[in-house]
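User: Sequence recovery, please. Input:
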Protein backbone atom coordinates (compact mmCIF):
# COMPACT_ATOMS: atom_id res chain seq x y z
CA UNK A 1 0.00 0.00 0.00
CA UNK A 2 1.27 3.51 -0.86
CA UNK A 3 1.73 5.53 2.32
CA UNK A 4 1.93 9.29 1.95
CA UNK A 5 5.13 10.71 3.39
CA UNK A 6 4.70 12.76 6.54
CA UNK A 7 7.84 14.88 6.22
CA UNK A 8 7.89 18.07 8.33
CA UNK A 9 7.11 21.09 6.14
CA UNK A 10 5.33 19.09 3.42
CA UNK A 11 3.16 21.39 1.28
CA UNK A 12 -0.40 20.21 0.60
CA UNK A 13 -1.82 23.29 -1.13
CA UNK A 14 -0.59 26.52 -2.67
CA UNK A 15 -2.65 29.29 -4.28
CA UNK A 16 -2.82 33.03 -4.95
CA UNK A 17 -5.30 35.37 -3.28
CA UNK A 18 -4.82 38.80 -4.88
CA UNK A 19 -1.13 39.48 -4.43
CA UNK A 20 -0.79 37.07 -1.54
CA UNK A 21 0.67 33.63 -1.78
CA UNK A 22 -1.18 31.18 0.43
CA UNK A 23 0.43 27.90 1.43
CA UNK A 24 -1.03 25.10 3.56
CA UNK A 25 1.68 22.79 4.85
CA UNK A 26 2.74 20.56 7.70
CA UNK A 27 4.71 22.32 10.46
CA UNK A 28 8.46 21.97 11.01
CA UNK A 29 10.71 22.75 13.98
CA UNK A 30 11.95 26.02 12.44
CA UNK A 31 8.33 27.37 12.65
CA UNK A 32 8.72 27.70 16.40
CA UNK A 33 9.00 31.54 16.58
CA UNK A 34 6.09 32.08 14.18
CA UNK A 35 3.88 29.58 16.01
CA UNK A 36 4.64 31.20 19.36
CA UNK A 37 3.71 34.58 17.87
CA UNK A 38 0.48 33.10 16.45
CA UNK A 39 -0.79 31.62 19.70
CA UNK A 40 0.21 34.66 21.75
CA UNK A 41 -1.48 36.97 19.23
CA UNK A 42 -4.75 35.04 19.67
CA UNK A 43 -4.37 34.91 23.47
CA UNK A 44 -3.91 38.69 23.42
CA UNK A 45 -7.12 39.03 21.39
CA UNK A 46 -8.91 36.91 24.04
CA UNK A 47 -10.59 34.71 21.43
CA UNK A 48 -12.67 31.77 22.63
CA UNK A 49 -10.00 29.06 22.68
CA UNK A 50 -8.58 26.70 25.27
CA UNK A 51 -5.32 28.62 25.74
CA UNK A 52 -5.99 31.70 27.83
CA UNK A 53 -2.46 32.52 28.93
CA UNK A 54 0.56 33.50 26.88
CA UNK A 55 2.92 30.63 26.12
CA UNK A 56 6.64 30.71 26.77
CA UNK A 57 9.13 29.64 24.11
CA UNK A 58 9.89 26.57 26.21
CA UNK A 59 6.23 25.52 26.43
CA UNK A 60 5.72 26.07 22.72
CA UNK A 61 8.83 24.04 21.87
CA UNK A 62 7.59 21.16 23.98
CA UNK A 63 4.19 21.34 22.25
CA UNK A 64 5.74 21.50 18.77
CA UNK A 65 8.09 18.55 19.42
CA UNK A 66 5.12 16.55 20.62
CA UNK A 67 3.07 17.57 17.59
CA UNK A 68 5.84 16.56 15.16
CA UNK A 69 6.05 13.15 16.84
CA UNK A 70 2.28 12.65 16.65
CA UNK A 71 2.31 13.60 12.95
CA UNK A 72 5.13 11.15 12.25
CA UNK A 73 3.18 8.41 14.07
CA UNK A 74 0.02 9.23 12.08
CA UNK A 75 -1.86 10.09 15.27
CA UNK A 76 -2.46 13.62 14.08
CA UNK A 77 -2.71 15.70 10.94
CA UNK A 78 -1.77 19.33 11.27
CA UNK A 79 -1.50 22.20 8.80
CA UNK A 80 -0.21 25.74 9.15
CA UNK A 81 -1.27 28.60 6.87
CA UNK A 82 1.50 30.71 5.40
CA UNK A 83 0.62 34.07 3.89
CA UNK A 84 3.56 35.54 1.98
CA UNK A 85 5.90 33.44 4.12
CA UNK A 86 4.39 34.24 7.54
CA UNK A 87 2.34 31.79 9.60
CA UNK A 88 -1.16 33.21 10.10
CA UNK A 89 -3.10 30.19 11.28
CA UNK A 90 -3.18 26.53 12.05
CA UNK A 91 -5.48 23.57 12.26
CA UNK A 92 -5.29 19.98 13.41
CA UNK A 93 -7.24 16.76 13.73
CA UNK A 94 -6.09 14.33 16.35
CA UNK A 95 -7.11 10.69 16.24
CA UNK A 96 -8.64 9.41 19.47
CA UNK A 97 -6.36 7.06 21.37
CA UNK A 98 -8.86 4.62 22.81
CA UNK A 99 -9.30 1.50 20.69
CA UNK A 100 -13.07 1.89 20.53
CA UNK A 101 -12.73 5.48 19.33
CA UNK A 102 -10.05 5.17 16.69
CA UNK A 103 -12.43 5.93 13.86
CA UNK A 104 -12.89 9.42 15.32
CA UNK A 105 -10.74 12.51 15.64
CA UNK A 106 -10.91 15.90 17.32
CA UNK A 107 -10.68 19.08 15.26
CA UNK A 108 -9.24 22.49 16.12
CA UNK A 109 -8.58 25.65 14.08
CA UNK A 110 -7.29 29.15 14.71
CA UNK A 111 -6.76 31.92 12.20
CA UNK A 112 -5.41 35.41 12.82
CA UNK A 113 -7.90 38.23 12.57
CA UNK A 114 -6.20 39.71 9.47
CA UNK A 115 -7.20 36.73 7.31
CA UNK A 116 -10.67 35.92 8.69
CA UNK A 117 -13.57 36.22 6.27
CA UNK A 118 -11.33 35.66 3.22
CA UNK A 119 -12.33 32.07 2.47
CA UNK A 120 -8.94 30.80 3.69
CA UNK A 121 -10.52 29.00 6.66
CA UNK A 122 -12.92 27.10 4.43
CA UNK A 123 -10.16 25.96 2.08
CA UNK A 124 -8.03 25.08 5.10
CA UNK A 125 -10.82 22.98 6.58
CA UNK A 126 -11.26 21.10 3.29
CA UNK A 127 -7.50 20.44 3.20
CA UNK A 128 -7.26 19.13 6.79
CA UNK A 129 -10.39 17.00 6.30
CA UNK A 130 -8.79 15.42 3.22
CA UNK A 131 -5.57 14.73 5.14
CA UNK A 132 -7.55 13.20 8.01
CA UNK A 133 -9.36 10.81 5.66
CA UNK A 134 -6.18 9.83 3.88
CA UNK A 135 -3.72 9.60 6.77
CA UNK A 136 -5.81 8.91 9.88
CA UNK A 137 -8.57 6.99 8.09
CA UNK A 138 -11.19 8.35 10.45
CA UNK A 139 -14.96 8.46 9.85
CA UNK A 140 -16.13 11.07 12.33
CA UNK A 141 -14.75 14.52 13.20
CA UNK A 142 -15.72 15.89 16.61
CA UNK A 143 -15.23 19.30 18.11
CA UNK A 144 -16.27 21.38 21.05
CA UNK A 145 -16.50 25.16 21.21
CA UNK A 146 -17.61 27.96 23.49
CA UNK A 147 -21.34 28.48 22.86
CA UNK A 148 -20.56 32.19 22.80
CA UNK A 149 -18.22 31.72 19.83
CA UNK A 150 -20.99 32.36 17.30
CA UNK A 151 -18.58 33.00 14.44
CA UNK A 152 -16.90 29.64 14.94
CA UNK A 153 -20.17 27.67 15.21
CA UNK A 154 -21.54 29.40 12.08
CA UNK A 155 -18.33 28.45 10.28
CA UNK A 156 -18.51 24.82 11.47
CA UNK A 157 -22.15 24.52 10.41
CA UNK A 158 -21.19 25.76 6.94
CA UNK A 159 -18.52 23.04 6.83
CA UNK A 160 -21.09 20.31 7.50
CA UNK A 161 -20.94 19.93 11.28
CA UNK A 162 -24.09 19.64 13.34
CA UNK A 163 -24.64 20.30 17.01
CA UNK A 164 -25.24 17.12 18.99
CA UNK A 165 -25.03 18.42 22.53
CA UNK A 166 -24.41 21.17 24.98
CA UNK A 167 -22.62 21.13 28.32
CA UNK A 168 -23.67 23.88 30.65
CA UNK A 169 -20.59 25.35 32.36
CA UNK A 170 -18.43 22.83 30.47
CA UNK A 171 -15.66 25.37 29.93
CA UNK A 172 -14.06 28.31 31.64
CA UNK A 173 -13.37 31.66 30.03
CA UNK A 174 -10.87 33.64 32.07
CA UNK A 175 -12.00 32.06 35.33
CA UNK A 176 -15.76 32.22 34.69
CA UNK A 177 -17.89 29.23 33.73
CA UNK A 178 -19.04 29.20 30.13
CA UNK A 179 -21.28 26.87 28.11
CA UNK A 180 -19.87 24.40 25.61
CA UNK A 181 -21.33 22.97 22.40
CA UNK A 182 -20.41 19.65 20.89
CA UNK A 183 -20.52 19.28 17.09
CA UNK A 184 -19.79 16.36 14.77
CA UNK A 185 -19.28 15.71 11.09
CA UNK A 186 -19.62 12.26 9.52
CA UNK A 187 -17.16 11.81 6.66
C1 LIG B 1 -13.37 30.19 13.69
C2 LIG B 1 -12.58 30.67 12.48
C3 LIG B 1 -11.57 29.61 12.06
C4 LIG B 1 -13.56 30.86 11.29
O1 LIG B 1 -12.87 31.36 10.19
P1 LIG B 1 -13.39 32.71 9.47
O2 LIG B 1 -12.51 33.01 8.33
O3 LIG B 1 -13.54 33.74 10.52
O4 LIG B 1 -14.80 32.17 9.00
P2 LIG B 1 -15.72 32.69 7.82
O5 LIG B 1 -15.67 34.18 7.75
O6 LIG B 1 -15.45 31.90 6.60
O7 LIG B 1 -17.15 32.19 8.34
C5 LIG B 1 -17.72 32.69 9.51
C6 LIG B 1 -19.22 32.85 9.30
O8 LIG B 1 -19.81 33.34 10.49
C7 LIG B 1 -20.46 34.56 10.24
N1 LIG B 1 -20.31 35.40 11.43
C8 LIG B 1 -19.35 36.31 11.68
N2 LIG B 1 -19.53 36.84 12.89
C9 LIG B 1 -20.64 36.26 13.42
C10 LIG B 1 -21.34 36.38 14.64
N3 LIG B 1 -20.94 37.24 15.59
N4 LIG B 1 -22.43 35.61 14.83
C11 LIG B 1 -22.85 34.74 13.89
N5 LIG B 1 -22.21 34.57 12.71
C12 LIG B 1 -21.12 35.33 12.48
C13 LIG B 1 -19.82 35.12 9.02
O9 LIG B 1 -20.66 36.03 8.36
C14 LIG B 1 -19.55 33.87 8.22
O10 LIG B 1 -20.69 33.38 7.56
P3 LIG B 1 -20.93 33.68 5.98
O11 LIG B 1 -19.74 33.13 5.25
O12 LIG B 1 -22.18 32.93 5.67
O13 LIG B 1 -21.04 35.15 5.85
C15 LIG B 1 -11.85 32.01 12.78
O14 LIG B 1 -12.79 33.03 12.97
C16 LIG B 1 -10.91 31.95 13.97
O15 LIG B 1 -9.85 31.35 13.91
N6 LIG B 1 -11.27 32.62 15.08
C17 LIG B 1 -10.41 32.75 16.23
C18 LIG B 1 -10.07 31.43 16.91
C19 LIG B 1 -11.29 30.59 17.15
O16 LIG B 1 -12.31 31.05 17.62
N7 LIG B 1 -11.14 29.30 16.83
C20 LIG B 1 -12.20 28.34 17.01
C21 LIG B 1 -12.16 27.79 18.38
S1 LIG B 1 -13.47 26.59 18.63
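Assistant: Recovered sequence (187 residues):
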Amino acid sequence: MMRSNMKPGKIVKKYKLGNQEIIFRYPKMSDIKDLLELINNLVKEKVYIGSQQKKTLKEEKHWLENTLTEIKNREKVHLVVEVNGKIMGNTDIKKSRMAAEQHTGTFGIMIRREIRGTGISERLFKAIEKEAKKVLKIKIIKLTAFTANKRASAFYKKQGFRTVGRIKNGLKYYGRYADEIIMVKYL
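The pocket of coenzyme A is lined by residues 42, 47-49, 109-111, 116-117, 121-122, 145, 149-152, 154-155 (CB under 6 Å).
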